[in-house]
Amino acid sequence: MLKKCAKEKNVKFEAIVNDNKIIGIVYLINYDNISYLMYFAIDEKFRNKGYGSKVLKDLIKKYKTIILSIERPKKELKNSQKRKEFYLRNGFNETNKFIIDSGAEYEILCTKKSFKITKEILENRYNKMTSSIILKYLIRKTFNTKINFVK
User: Fold this and answer.
1) Nearest to residue 35, comparing CAs of 9, 63, 61?
2) Please, are residues 5 and 27 in contact by the beta-carbon 8 Å criterion?
3) Which structural domains are found in the chain, ordered by start?
4) Separation of CA 134 from chain center
5) Cβ neighbours, 10 Å, residue 72
6) What global pTM score does this model have?
7) Cα within 13 Å of Cα(2), Cβ side
8) Each residue's pLDDT tens digit in the chain (151 positions)?
9) What one-character DSSP code corresponds to residue 96?
10) Start-to-end C-alpha separation, the chain
């Protein structure tokens, strides 16, 4: 489904390459003068070498206002807290907005401190993924496309 949506002009699904090796991926949806970073991953073998930070800085320079959702950090899960700290070190800010999507709780981060996160903005991340009626139906069945903020 994501590969099919990546054919849209506003969706970027790209490999992160270093020395002709794929070391990660970026999946970005551009809409309404913002970008939603849906997936960002660096292969474990290449982590802690500065690649992720460099890619994020390049994305921020290019797209300016980027939002993303990360699994809400839990004290007992050190990786979730480390992930959040990584994004905060690399240009993202807390928004104090939390949602539930497909049964998991997520925290919304944004590169612009003053940017107001609304239900409509978050709902559009899925609505703007594709113009295909069939894919929109599949997206609604796969993800929680109706946003409700939680505390």
Assistant:
1) 63
2) no
3) 2-145 (3.40.630.30)
4) 23
5) 17
6) 0.90
7) 13
8) 889 999 999 999 999 999 999 999 999 999 999 999 999 999 999 999 999 999 999 999 999 899 999 998 776 666 778 899 999 999 999 999 999 887 889 999 999 999 999 999 999 888 899 999 999 999 888 887 788 899 8
9) E
10) 31
**CA distance readout (Å), 64 to 5, 50, 81:** 22, 20, 24
Burial class of residue 93 in the structure, from the number of CB atoms within 10 Å of its CB (0-12 exposed, 13-18 middle, 19+ buried): middle
92 CB neighbour count, 10 Å cutoff: 23
Rounded Cα gap, residues 38 and 36, in angstroms: 6
Round to whole Å and give the CA distance between 28 and 67: 10
Give residue 4's identity as a one-letter amino acid code. Answer: K
Side chain identity, residue 144: N
Q: Is 96 left (phi over 0), alpha (psi -120 to 50) or beta?
A: left
Residue 24: count other Cβ atoms within 10 Å of its Cβ. 19
Q: Which of 2, 24, 20, 23 is nearest to 11 (CA)?
A: 2
Two structure tokens written together for 36: 């939603």
